[in-house]
Fold these 2 entries.
Entry 1:
Amino acid sequence: MIHDTTIEAPADRIPVVVLGATGLVGQRLVAMLARHPWFRLAGVAASERHAGRQYGEVVQWRIEGEAPPEAAALRLARPTPDDCPPATLVFSALPALEAEAVEPVFARAGAFVSSNASAFRMQPDVPLVIPEINPDHLSALANQRASRQWSGALVTNPNCSTIGLALTLAPLARFGIDQVMVTTLQAASGAGYPGVASLDLIDNVIPFIAGEEEKIETETRKILGVWQDGAFVDAPIRLSAQTTRVPVREGHLASVSVKFAQTLDPDEILAAWEAYSGLPQTLGLPTAPQQVLRYLDAPDRPQPRYDRDAENGMGVTLGRLRRCAVLDYRFICLSHNTIRGAAGAALLNAELAYARGLLAASGRSA
Amino acid sequence: MIHDTTIEAPADRIPVVVLGATGLVGQRLVAMLARHPWFRLAGVAASERHAGRQYGEVVQWRIEGEAPPEAAALRLARPTPDDCPPATLVFSALPALEAEAVEPVFARAGAFVSSNASAFRMQPDVPLVIPEINPDHLSALANQRASRQWSGALVTNPNCSTIGLALTLAPLARFGIDQVMVTTLQAASGAGYPGVASLDLIDNVIPFIAGEEEKIETETRKILGVWQDGAFVDAPIRLSAQTTRVPVREGHLASVSVKFAQTLDPDEILAAWEAYSGLPQTLGLPTAPQQVLRYLDAPDRPQPRYDRDAENGMGVTLGRLRRCAVLDYRFICLSHNTIRGAAGAALLNAELAYARGLLAASGRSA
Amino acid sequence: MIHDTTIEAPADRIPVVVLGATGLVGQRLVAMLARHPWFRLAGVAASERHAGRQYGEVVQWRIEGEAPPEAAALRLARPTPDDCPPATLVFSALPALEAEAVEPVFARAGAFVSSNASAFRMQPDVPLVIPEINPDHLSALANQRASRQWSGALVTNPNCSTIGLALTLAPLARFGIDQVMVTTLQAASGAGYPGVASLDLIDNVIPFIAGEEEKIETETRKILGVWQDGAFVDAPIRLSAQTTRVPVREGHLASVSVKFAQTLDPDEILAAWEAYSGLPQTLGLPTAPQQVLRYLDAPDRPQPRYDRDAENGMGVTLGRLRRCAVLDYRFICLSHNTIRGAAGAALLNAELAYARGLLAASGRSA
Amino acid sequence: MIHDTTIEAPADRIPVVVLGATGLVGQRLVAMLARHPWFRLAGVAASERHAGRQYGEVVQWRIEGEAPPEAAALRLARPTPDDCPPATLVFSALPALEAEAVEPVFARAGAFVSSNASAFRMQPDVPLVIPEINPDHLSALANQRASRQWSGALVTNPNCSTIGLALTLAPLARFGIDQVMVTTLQAASGAGYPGVASLDLIDNVIPFIAGEEEKIETETRKILGVWQDGAFVDAPIRLSAQTTRVPVREGHLASVSVKFAQTLDPDEILAAWEAYSGLPQTLGLPTAPQQVLRYLDAPDRPQPRYDRDAENGMGVTLGRLRRCAVLDYRFICLSHNTIRGAAGAALLNAELAYARGLLAASGRSA
């Protein structure tokens, strides 16, 4: 039995592989793994055509600084268990279509796959996890293993625009959330690289991101729902989303209105946010933010440029809480889309899995 | 009695004065007046410290092209009836505080003041007019004249973020609008010049515009309401707004959700928008758009850069109509904030006033 | 013999075809042809995979307004003379590699090809023309026809960053230009669509554009050179270019320093620019700017946003002329890269060809 | 006598005051001092109207993260020695006009003033110092003290656009630099806050920064010159600058061409840059970059977004070295304008002064 206290680091750092390592989320993973206390980047994989070349030569590094030298020196493998170095833990930052084909192969071969891809998120035996919110959804892995005959496992994290919203709503769930209305202002990096053409974001915004609104609406309900009697039961929230793309590099901002099942004072909401903490904080997971949610009193915050890096990009920043004339309350939330919303999310899921002893169970022999 | 048919141009163009002519909205007015068939720019006024200097020397022209030569040659007057050339019609693009002091002086002196300023919009005897929607609100001018002892008149147009929304809602009012939820993405020009610092809009958005949300909520209700028994009665709509500033030059975009009093098909909404037309179109007012509202079928439109100039900036562009999981329908609307949302609004109000014979009545002798 | 007076429009507008019509320069051509007095858009061609579909369905319109309805209704042809409708005049906005294969086929089939592509610009029998500067280079077409056995002809216009510079230097050539140093700040549209990724131009500039510096250096010398004894002789100018990409939609700005063969007063330069006019102005070609070069006295102009549309985008705007401590004079020049620098350039070349009777000669029968 | 070895930290951190602490450079200083091993922020001063209020309430923090809590709690003083807490060392981030009045008062009162302001940079007894290049210019302080009767001292650092250029040229000086041509692309933060209006930098660049070109031309010659027989002798370089403002937050990029007194291979230049190191590196000054100049081989680097933070913003990044057809060599250099170009420059000068024992000498009693 695991006691919820700070977890000890492994004696040797656990070798991990990143699939889709040349993409923007893959780059973030590579950067975050370079200084990780538990995990060691052992392999990187990308599409067939780059296989065999050095990561540092192929990658178009599009985040701050430069590719870590150790990563840059790695040879790019094909995204197959045979071509990648042996690894207990595999991160997937693949596009959805590739993920659909590749991730099961690794899970079947015994790897614990922590995926940022959307391909399997809504499957009935695949946990969609934000460790602060629903770590118990990992219980579904027993069903997954049984039904899929995998010696490994597959755990997913939500879409970049879902995570900030779900973390903001989670501590309010106890009040009963009936309805949620959201309009997002999302950063260019959410579309990967090259992603959005500069001509579409100079002096412009785009009021559409393919598939994004459905993801917010369905994923949020699954995450805030329960794993019960061998099935995920969605939270009974009516949720409506409009997504837009704005000329910002990083940081998804959301304008949110919520209707609760009961009457609330703003102070109750602020207190719930302030106090919010979960298993990652209790366990002291290396990538976990100390303060998950932070409310700013300034009337014009949060802003992407100034607030997205809170808690090394793993915190969610809130502001402008006030009564809503249509639903009950309005507010703004902001999260770093490629850290908290993608790479950091997958990393935190893997840390949770390690802390829960789930990696050992899924170890794959060389 | 006026027949609602195309209005004849005046024999001689009517001399007009623009107050606040050096600001961004003032510049738009000056540009639009340079080629106006009914009105002739006779004078420009700005703050005391510029008085006496040539407009062309003082103005920092921040819209396309250059200041019209005739305007550039004008001497900047003080914003007083004595210092300005005689004019039947006065446009005010003054800041609210100045407008509060200056506009009544001109109205008292006999001018018809068409104001873009917020100072008097919500006053019980001041019409807040969008000519397509509530031209009958001009009836309040009789009361205004009586109570204020003005030989002239004061008519206002709404805030730049209100106009697009109100025009979009107006044709839907017949279905009964219960609730409206809106999040705006507003252009930098809405803050005037210099307005927002570039450091605040490079790689950033700002989720706050002072006073803007209240304006949207209160002005929309007044415009969609009625003038009845000597008083304005607000439309009984619950309206909630979140405003944001984005790195766009011109064009306010709004994400809107609406709850109606009755069940509707999307086709009914589209048909109502498509067919929408008002008095400016019937009268053939020079600045009136031919098609007031235009719905785009493309999934990612309207976009500020590509759609704001529809109908010379006087049209409103719509898109993405779909059912809303919380209210009834969601959609996007876009309008040009310094044309339809400000200068063009004031101009259209003045054209309506001329067509209705209200300018003659308020003529001020030299 | 042609008299250099205003040219009469053809009785019927001449049918033309645009190759590469879906690209950004192709779109500009389509837009400019929609209202052209001499030419009528008869056909559009793009890559094989779009052939047969309607232009309006395929094109991602990325310039102001919308695709002209007549153009939108056209069926996209393959870029072959057989698949395109018969046309005396063919505009090529193809990528260089495709242009290399396709343009000769049309020229051989009898079309007069006005090309914006770089493939043939530096060929010894292909005129690289800016009509104000070197219309006499069209004399090379006789050699071209003889050597290549084409019944048609191929004329090219320079790179978008070369045109503004060449037009600026042309009137100074009489003073003797020895050396030119240039650093450009080029707009995103110069890279086409999708072109530069937004992540590379939000809060960033890129100090490199592949092949661009060589084009500026070689093309400028050819344009300012002479056609003599059956060969092009470059102007003996030492020219050094650094190109950069900046977050601007349209308008290439250049910081230029020039060393002359003689001592000059600034007034002589200003006068030469002011007076500059060429054959397009004399002939009254429809797309020709009235004032080719315009010098702005304001200390901070020209600026892309405010000045690029001068003369409908066909004028070049200059500013900041002053002595240079290293060479003789420094200044700034600005031109609209997809109009004066591309689509308008190809169009003006075609108008010149028509005025010179060169289209008739190269007519291709259906 | 000082040996050029690593300097020991003072037993107690030296109390310092920042004048102009609410501006953008002041904010950087405050942020950098929050974690400084030698200096302790004891006081902050700004304009009269803010005096007495808490720094955290007044400052509009416009750099990453938030104002350090210790700084935020400080009371803003008037910029006078009496109102500020006693401090041996005073940093000035004042505007030039204020600096002209205020800095001498502090120097007279005994403080060592490290100023980022331009007011005194070109004075014949004021060192204009970049510690890697001309630490010996501090010898002028003896003259300064004598002539001005100050018990303290005043040392200045160059303009933000000069520093990167001067550091790049310094290691090449041994080859003999005859001529330098530069065009800069400068970040918005160089103009302070609010600085440039967003309307002037959305879809735009500005080819003018008041006074900036003269500063580059004169300051560079002074820095690369010598202190000799009691006077500064400029380096005999002909230098011509064009400055532009681009939509970038931080990082000034320069396109540079250089003519040398002798023939050079590119490898000699690269080697000189690579090996460049100065007194700050030898002494191990806390803010000194380890590698002063770094050359990137990638054809499209350096870029502001990706390279400005090299060496915590204290390194200069170079790229694109190649022969120039007009002068001898061209290249690109980039430096962080508010760190290496301003706050870090002033800080490094102060560290040098401490290491040289110049602070003790100028200590001011409480």
Note: Residues 83 and 265 of chain D are 57 Å apart (CA to CA).
Entry 2:
Amino acid sequence: MKVYSKSIRVKTSSSVEFVNITDKVVEAIRESGVKDGLVNIFVPHTTVGLYINEDESGLKRDIDTVLSKLVPQGAGYMHDRVDYNAHAHIRSTIISPSITIPLNGHRLGLGTWQSIFLAEFDGPRERRLIIQVIGV
Amino acid sequence: MKVYSKSIRVKTSSSVEFVNITDKVVEAIRESGVKDGLVNIFVPHTTVGLYINEDESGLKRDIDTVLSKLVPQGAGYMHDRVDYNAHAHIRSTIISPSITIPLNGHRLGLGTWQSIFLAEFDGPRERRLIIQVIGV
Amino acid sequence: MKVYSKSIRVKTSSSVEFVNITDKVVEAIRESGVKDGLVNIFVPHTTVGLYINEDESGLKRDIDTVLSKLVPQGAGYMHDRVDYNAHAHIRSTIISPSITIPLNGHRLGLGTWQSIFLAEFDGPRERRLIIQVIGV
């Protein structure tokens, strides 16, 4: 049984940005040599999330639009007295910082239209990503 | 250490439908022979999600009602110019396509009232489900 | 390869309450002796969720405020005819009962500002928490 861990830096360039990190995950799996098991992706930040969906520019805008409507910036949050980013923390609570995907025959279990995204909600910043591969 | 993987087809019969897949997961665990570890369930689709909650018909309607209010169909989404299902993609982003559950003594760690649901948001379709069991 | 499992009781003291359970998870990891792998935390309940974010009292209030606005109590839910807690079930569907975190060098992969919270949506109650550590 093997456990392979890789830490990666991702630079975001605007306040809200959804970065396709699928290639980085695929590369870590190749490096790991693990054939069958699980891949966990985790961001050690409180204003970032991870999600899986289609990499279509309109859809990425739509996801931002909906999250901005459900959790608007500056809506009188108590946390904004500490730091003006409560909306980013709350969106990160809804879009979790952790995702787990099956790995079979050295291949990630993603479907044809699925990509993995790091969702920046309080950028631009340099973010860290942990890719953990566990299996045989 | 064992890794057992099973791919299952699930047919949905309406545009929105929450299908209780607990029995299929329990069956895969039995087949795996794994006693203690983790079970990851994953749907390789961008308009489907997985959630755990009670199998009560009223509650299933309520969850649909709330998601339909938070992410209404046809609300001027950019992705709807490509394919008229942006609402399904966005709901799938909120209700993640992956869930992980502990396994102890050959038993899934679900509580008395918990069932596992495949949430179809753009049916009817035939969907695929990956059940990955890892442990000893 | 080791699998270590621990079941913990957590008492909540009001209807909605976010309890920081990070110390309990860290303690379970120490007991497990596992150095590298994955930690899965799971609540076997349908009106509780788990999330990771900052332990700041204003932010905790903000998260409650937003969830209460998105999924208000008593909004004519069908499940409320069975038991007056549909809002808690639906919030638990959005804030999942399962979270997975990487473990490296005996250390949980949490970032500086991240804490793990049990989100009670239908308390006060005694809740159960399963911490599963898997790895080498």
Note: Chain A touches chain B through 35 residues (CB under 8 Å).
